[in-house]
């Protein structure tokens, strides 16, 4: 599949390639077809096998785990475990919801955030997960597809970061981590942690 952000530029390039090929021949149009292939790679958005683990917190992004540790959650003002995934600059840029639950508005935004991209997700069991998307290499605003008050499913597409960025996930302190620094994870399919419930 192609992400929704890639549809418009891909269609423009294909149209340009067809027009150039019609009026100038196949050879001059090769540059446009090559650009189309590049866009197909950059905006690819493959389906993922979502694990059948209701208490799992899946990775919201493709990339490498670059930090894991106890951190203060500046969005919900609590102690938490933070897992940071650095997206690959030429990987899949679509982000996915780490859990199933309701989208809520965080009660606080850090002072250093110009435009908040912290998404608070609350599971039916009352677990609070915060996913924070940061800007990619183009310094463009991350896109968020889900809105406050909506429900979202585990592994469902929920955002987009142009040319990759960083995604932080703030987890409850009592969850069990299943990743470590250096691990490579895929969005929607690889668990980061298991929520703790008796």
Oligomer: single chain
Sheet bearing the most strands, described?
8 strands, antiparallel
Q: Which second-level CATH architecture of the largest domain applies?
A: Distorted Sandwich
N-to-C CA distance:
39 Å
Helix content: 10-25%
Radius of gyration: 19 Å
Highest-level CATH class of the largest domain: Mainly Beta
Q: What's the SSE pattern?
A: HHEEEEEEEEEEEEEE
CATH topology of the largest domain, which one? Glucose Permease (Domain IIA)
Number of helices: 2
CATH superfamily of the largest domain: Glucose Permease (Domain IIA)
The backbone outline, from C-alpha atoms, is: elongated
Short description:
By secondary structure, this protein is an alpha+beta fold. 19% of the residues lie in helices and 32% in strands.
What features would you describe in this structure?
With 198 residues, the chain is of the alpha+beta class. It folds into two domains: 4-42; 56-194, Glucose Permease (Domain IIA). It is built from two helices and 14 strands; from the N terminus they run ααββββββββββββββ. It has helices at residues 4-24, 26-42; strands at 56-58, 63-73, 78-87, 94-96, 101-104, 118-122, 128-133, 143-144, 151-152, 157-160, 166-171, 176-177, 184-185, 191-194. Strands 9-5-6-7-11-3-2-13 form an eight-stranded antiparallel sheet, with no helix packed on it. The chain has a three-stranded antiparallel sheet with strand order 1-14-12, with no helix packed on it. Helix 1 runs antiparallel to helix 2 (26-42). The protein is elongated and about 65 Å long.
